[in-house]
C-alpha cells in the first residue's frame, strides 16, 4: 500500500476490522442522503485511510468506540508520511481533508448517539491544519485588455468567442461548455443567459452583454448546424472540454505577451473589475452563482481601485486640514488653496446646508442627499433661501436628481406657507 490509490477496499478491511467497517459504512450511507456524490467519495477515501492505518498499526482495535487520542495522534503522523499520487508526500490540502473528515465523522456519530461512538470525541479543531487560501489571481486591467484584443484578432473565431464570453460573464469552464442551444433568452428588452445546474446544484440567469449576443449569433451562423444541442461546440460539432478552453485562452495569452493563464482567472478578473467599479457584493454573488457571500467577500480584499480612491479622497481632506487656516471664508480664492483643493473647489464642490462636499464627481456616493430624501426630513420657511441656493447649485452642475429633490422641498414649503 504505497499510495492513495492503493488503499485497501472496504471488503479487504472488513476481514480484519468488521465492526469498524460496519460503523463507517453505515455513516457513509447516512451522509450520502444529504451530500453530493463527490463529497461522499471524499469521505469514503478519508475513512478508508484511517481504517487502513488501524489495520496496520492497531490490529487489535475492533470498535470505533475504543478509539482515543493516541490513535488520532498516531494517524496524524502516519498520514503525513504517506506518499502522494505524483510526489514524495501527500499534500497539506489532502491531509487537512482527511483529518477534517475524520473529525466530522466522530462529531456526528456522537451527536447522533450511536452505540459505537467513543465516550468523548477524540479529535479537536486544532487537529485539522489550517489551510492557506491564496487570494484569487485576477488579471489587471491592462493585461485583461491585451488578452481580449489578442483573442479578437485570432484567426480562429472560437478563440475570440471563448475568451470574451468568459471575461464578460465570469462563468466557470464547466458551465460554459455545458450551455445549451436555448441558453440565451430575451426577457423584455434585455438578453439573459440561463446557466444550467452546475457545481452548486443551482441554475441562475445573468444579464448578457450585447457584444456577447452578437458573437454567439455570428459563430453559430458560421459553424453550428440547426438543432445542435449545445450553444458553443467545436466547429465540427463536438463538445468543448476544459482542456480546449485552457488552450484557447493561452493561445490568446501568448499572442498578448502574457504568461500562463488559468481559465478561472477570467472569472476572478470580472469579479475584481466589478467590485472595483462599485458593484455590490450581493449582485456579484448572484452573477457568479455563489451560494454564500463568504465566497464573494474574498474579492473585497483585492479591490485595489476602491482602496486607492478612498485613500486619495481621505488624503485630500487631510491635506485641507493641514494646509488651510482654522477660520475659512465661505469661498477661498483659488490661489489661496493647494493645487488639489483648488481643483476640487472649482470642479467638484457640492453646496450643502452648512458647507461643501468635495467628493470628486467621478465617485459615486450612496449618501448624497440622504437626509433631504428621507421621509422623516422636515424643513421650514426660514431655510428657503438655503434651499434655493442649493437648487441653483444643483442646476448649474446639471445634477437633475438633486434639483428634483430641492424642487419638491421648495414646492412643499410654498404650499404650506400659502395655506
What features would you describe in this structure?
The protein is mostly helical and 419 residues long. The chain has three domains: 4-127, DNA polymerase, domain 1 (Orthogonal Bundle); 141-302, Intergrase catalytic core (hpI Integrase, Chain A); 366-419, no CATH class. Helices cover 52% and strands 5% of the residues. The chain contains 17 helices and five strands. It has helices spanning 10-14, 18-31, 37-57, 69-80, 92-111, 141-153, 157-169, 173-177, 210-223, 242-255, 263-276, 281-288, 293-297, 304-323, 339-347, 384-396, 400-418; strands spanning 184-187, 190-195, 204-207, 350-352, 355-357. A hairpin with an 8-residue loop joins strand 2 and strand 3 (204-207).
Strand fraction: under 5%
Count of distinct strands: 5
Major β-sheet, in short?
Answer: 3 strands, antiparallel
How many discrete structural domains?
3
Identify the overall geometry: extended
Report the average pLDDT across residues.
81
Summing up helix and strand content along with how strands pair, one would put the structural category as mainly alpha
Cα end-to-end separation:
94 Å
Output the keywords.
419 residues; mainly alpha; DNA polymerase, domain 1; hpI Integrase, Chain A; 3 domains; three-stranded antiparallel β-sheet; two-stranded antiparallel sheet; disordered N terminus
